[in-house]
Design goal:
The structure is a single chain. This protein has about 190 residues and is of the alpha+beta class. The chain contains 2 helices and 11 strands, in the order E-E-E-E-H-E-E-E-E-E-E-H-E. A 9-stranded antiparallel sheet has the order 5-11-3-4-10-8-9-7-6. A two-stranded antiparallel sheet has the order 1-2. Strand 6 and strand 7 form a beta hairpin.
Length: about 190
């Protein structure tokens, strides 16, 4: 990656939850940052992503944003005991939907999931797709989830407001708050 470019692999996995093309695999930027703004009903959540740390995950996220994959979807999972996360990125809202491909993990083994970290959800090694979680309070998790970025204090307040309303008793693990991503913009 001498020129700040890498090649990524996105093996097929199941059917996409919403029509979407896999991200580009060649000449993927591996330097600089990408800002992604999730316009959630409760307020904007700005994620700053570091391309040098996890270029393939950031590339996938950027591709999904450009294709409107996250637009008009809900964050379907809130955990407020043991670990503290708000999980989003599944257009079906079931926790089972993905983009029709998977990503190889980009891990150092030193990942820390402190408040404000955004990481890719998975169902085991090398199974990340489109689902991601925002850590809203320091959480003890194994270093098994690719960290794609962080959110700032203002964005963290939006997420903690959603979390403070709790988990729906009828629709657990859905949050009581709508937590609907109305639009996503880059920059």
């Amino acid at each position: 990656a001498g020129q700040g470019l890498v090649t990524c692999d996105y093996p097929s996995k199941g059917q996409p939850a919403k029509p979407v093309d896999p991200p580009p695999t060649n000449d993927v930027a591996a330097s600089g940052t990408l800002a992604v703004t999730l316009n959630i009903g409760e307020g904007p959540v700005v994620i700053t992503m570091d391309r040098s740390a996890t270029p393939c995950a950031v590339n996938s996220f950027e591709s999904l944003v450009k294709q409107g994959y996250f637009t008009d979807t809900s964050c379907h999972r809130l955990v407020d005991q043991g670990i503290y996360i708000l999980q989003c990125g599944d257009p079906t809202g079931t926790g089972r939907g993905g983009p029709g491909y998977r990503m190889l993990d980009e891990l150092t083994g030193q990942e820390v999931y402190s408040a404000g970290v955004v990481a890719m959800a998975n169902s085991g090694p090398d199974t990340s797709g489109s689902q991601f979680f925002i850590v809203w309070a320091d959480s003890q998790l194994p270093p098994a989830y690719t960290v794609v970025g962080t959110i700032d204090e203002t964005s963290l307040k939006v997420v903690t407001t959603i979390a403070s309303r709790g988990v729906s008793a009828e629709r657990a693990p859905n949050p009581i708050s709508p937590a609907r991503i109305e639009q996503v913009t880059l920059g």
